[in-house]
Amino acid sequence: MNSSKVLEIFKEITRIPRESGHEGPMIDFLEKFASSRGLACKKDSIGNICITREASPGKEDVPTLVLQGHQDMVCEKLGGVQHDFLKDPIEYVVEDGWMIAKGTTLGADDGIGVAAMLAMLESDLPMGRIECVFTISEETGMDGAFGMESGFFTGRTLINLDSEDEGQMFIGCAGGLDTFARFTYEREDVNPGYLPVRLEIGGAMGGHSGDDINKERANTVQLMSRFLFEELSHGLQLVLISGGNKPNAIARECEAIITVPDRTATIARFKEFGEAVRSEYFKSDPGLCFDAAEYRCTEKPVDSDVACRLILSLFSCPHGVEAMSQDIPGLVETSSNLASVRMSRKGLIEVVTSQRSSITSARKMMAAKVEANFTLAGAQVEHTSEYPGWKPNLDSHILKVCVESYRKLFGTDPEVKAIHAGLECGLFGEKFGDLDMISFGPTLRGVHAPGEKLELSSLDKFTDHLVDVVTNFR
């Protein structure tokens, strides 16, 4: 087994639709993979898959090792890109040592971990018994890990293959939850003399709401609400606001349609606003762009009271890093992500946010702060999809195995870290008791955003390391 085999399988996976909640084609692929190779395979009631390879001769006494990753991917695309994630294969290019998605997410999170597991299953390497666990809907709430029943896997040592920095071993992660705020509204007549303008903000870097939240990247929903807040004094009516997408992605695009008493002046102010904001984010978001234009619209505006409360609450909503860890230098401890805002013709506006923290009380505090913000604005607030953090264990046996293997192979020590993103390890530890766990993977960049990419040289090292750990585990 080598990285070429892993990449070959991953390229096959990029042709399989596997959006969170729609993993059916991926489940079929995994079951056929196991059946065609004579491997034991089981599926639980929600779609988690476990494929088992029995121990090689002479390795029967080695403890069972669990390899784990998730089937689904975050499905994000650039505005204007024609791509149906429920049927179209991912398009990519290989440039300068990177495999890069063209206008969409690549799905290397966690398709590359899945590919590595499948390559291990079909290899002829000598190893103990392995159980490869493929969970569903990790990206939208860790549904697979939440719904997994006791006994689905038997091993007590687990390697999660859902990390994104080669040379780093992760032994802890943040817990999180999503907070939804919902406004109801009626429509009102357009004010006399008011005319519609369409505003667009795009080109932001976006990124993962855990890994990238400390990079000071632009959030287009908050930027749009910032401009609309400034415009309230000039008079506006809100017809539409729409931006962001997934709870675990930083908003990259946002549009608004407003009616105003002086279109020319509004467009000029938006241009000035864009120039000022681009100077604020010239390093983190060099592609940030702003566009305003006259617009023809027959839809009536949202009633002014709700529109004002919505704009104020979006602008004041906590977003970004709340606190850094006092134990681990450089680790974000607590954060919140203003993920998206959507309007329905049925009179509903929904704002989606997500909160993370490695400390349970701080996570609940962050969610309560977001709740307070939207409650003051008259919204109904709901918290969902809470998952626990994963407490580091520096005495872990699998940690020692992985560090010694890395040192032997590459002549240097890996970094041992905790991560602000969520991993299923926290849930597994809570649900299945005293598991010994670690997480590592190749280097990915731009996950949860279009242009996501995989560094191929890191895939070589990741594969060699995984093979060495699995074949020498005892």
Write the layout of secondary structure elements.
Blueprint: H1 3-13, H2 24-36, E1 40-43, E2 49-53, E3 65-70, E4 92-95, E5 98-101, H3 108-122, E6 130-135, H4 143-147, E7 157-160, E8 168-173, E9 175-184, E10 195-202, H5 220-231, E11 237-244, E12 254-260, H6 263-280, E13 289-294, H7 304-316, E14 320-324, E15 332-344, E16 348-357, H8 360-376, E17 380-387, H9 397-410, E18 415-419, H10 425-432, E19 436-439, E20 444-445, E21 453-455, H11 456-472
Parallel strand pairs: 3-6, 3-7, 7-19, 8-18
Antiparallel strand pairs: 1-2, 2-6, 4-5, 5-21, 9-16, 9-17, 10-12, 10-13, 11-12, 11-15, 14-15, 15-16, 20-21
Note down, in words, how this protein is organized.
By secondary structure, this protein is α+β, with helices and mostly antiparallel strands. The protein folds into two domains: 3-174 and 389-472, Aminopeptidase (3-Layer(aba) Sandwich), CATH 3.40.630.10; 177-387, Alpha-Beta Plaits (2-Layer Sandwich), CATH 3.30.70.360. It is 30% helix and 27% strand. The chain contains eleven helices and 21 strands. It has helices at 3-13, 24-36, 108-122, 143-147, 220-231, 263-280, 304-316, 360-376, 397-410, 425-432, 456-472, and strands at residues 40-43, 49-53, 65-70, 92-95, 98-101, 130-135, 157-160, 168-173, 175-184, 195-202, 237-244, 254-260, 289-294, 320-324, 332-344, 348-357, 380-387, 415-419, 436-439, 444-445, 453-455. The strands form four sheets. Strands 9, 10, 11, 12, 13, 14, 15, 16 and 17 form a nine-stranded antiparallel sheet that branches. Helix 1 packs across helix 11 and helix 9 (397-410) crosses helix 11 (456-472). It is elongated and about 85 Å long.
